[in-house]
Amino acid sequence: KSANPQWREQFDFHYFSDRKDMLDIEVWRKDNKKHEELLGTCHVDITALPTKQTNCLELPLEKHPGSLLMLIAVAPCTGVSISDLCVCPLGDPSERQQISQRYCIKNSLRDIKDIGFLQVKVLKAVDLMAADFSGKSDPFCVLELGNDMLQTHTVYKNLNPEWNKVFTFPIKDIHDVLEVTVFDEDGDKPPDFLGKVAIPLLSV
């Protein structure tokens, strides 16, 4: 019930500088659970923004009245990685020892924002639902922690896919929940949902 909403939400996207990426933003109005209406879109060319500073942008919505006020910062990203299982970070015992020292109790107040990080090895899925007419699926796996999101590659025509990928997330809130969702890639259409599991960090 507002024409001037304030969300005050922060989202982190992992942007690789060798890509020419546009940030696409859509604003929607929801009447009820079933009816939604697009109120406008806008686009931001990430490569045109100055780095290592917070950019305050007022973006007019295309073909619709209104504008969005956003703060966008392009900054070097630390602690986030995707790697193959054979070159897994933390595989070296000396590196693990350095990490243990870094997060020991006596150093816990050295950097309040550096809580730690989570490493997730996504090995495989078993007996997935068949989403295609061929009796197969094209599954990929999405990992979300807070507002961080990383995903695996797609394994085509397979109900027992093996990804063997290692994901590393910085932890910003120890009360966050790791959500792992499996989707079926469906070309230009939205992906089909195949299943989900949620793991509270406090349970690890």
UniProtKB/TrEMBL annotation:
GO terms for cellular component: synaptic vesicle membrane. SUPFAM superfamilies: C2 domain (Calcium/lipid-binding domain, CaLB). It is found in: Membrane. GO terms for molecular function: calcium ion binding. Residues 1-59, 93-204 form the C2 domain. It is a multi-pass membrane protein. One of its GO terms (biological process) is regulation of neurotransmitter secretion. Keywords: Calcium, Membrane, Metal-binding, Repeat, Transmembrane, Transmembrane helix. InterPro entries: C2_dom (IPR000008), C2_domain_sf (IPR035892). Belongs to the MCTP family. This is MCTP2 protein. It comes from Ptilonorhynchus violaceus (Satin bowerbird). The lineage of its organism: Eukaryota, Metazoa, Chordata, Craniata, Vertebrata. The gene is Mctp2.
